[in-house]
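Take one protein record:
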Amino acid sequence: LAVSFDTISRFTNPKAGSEEYAQVGTTGGLDGLNVDACGYLYVTEYVAGIVWRVSPERVIEEAAQLASSWIPNLHWGSGVGGWDDHVLYVADRDAGRLFGLELGVPGAHE
């Protein structure tokens, strides 16, 4: 998987290059990636504070606009110790906060 500021590319063949998967992002850089149990891809855009959701059919929508300019990582809860497995937790590097997005679906099994 190759990532640039506004493009996610699916790796196809090292000699043939890559295939563009979807245009994601507006003004910031893309950073964190995760997938839910339904196959949706979640991508953080760290300057804009946006979490994008890309469907398996490549439909893109804004999942959340967060009050942060640096959201480098996201991960579903484990369902253990109070960490809800239907919540996508997003780290805020600037202010040391943790956002929880209640999406109603668990993350994909790793």
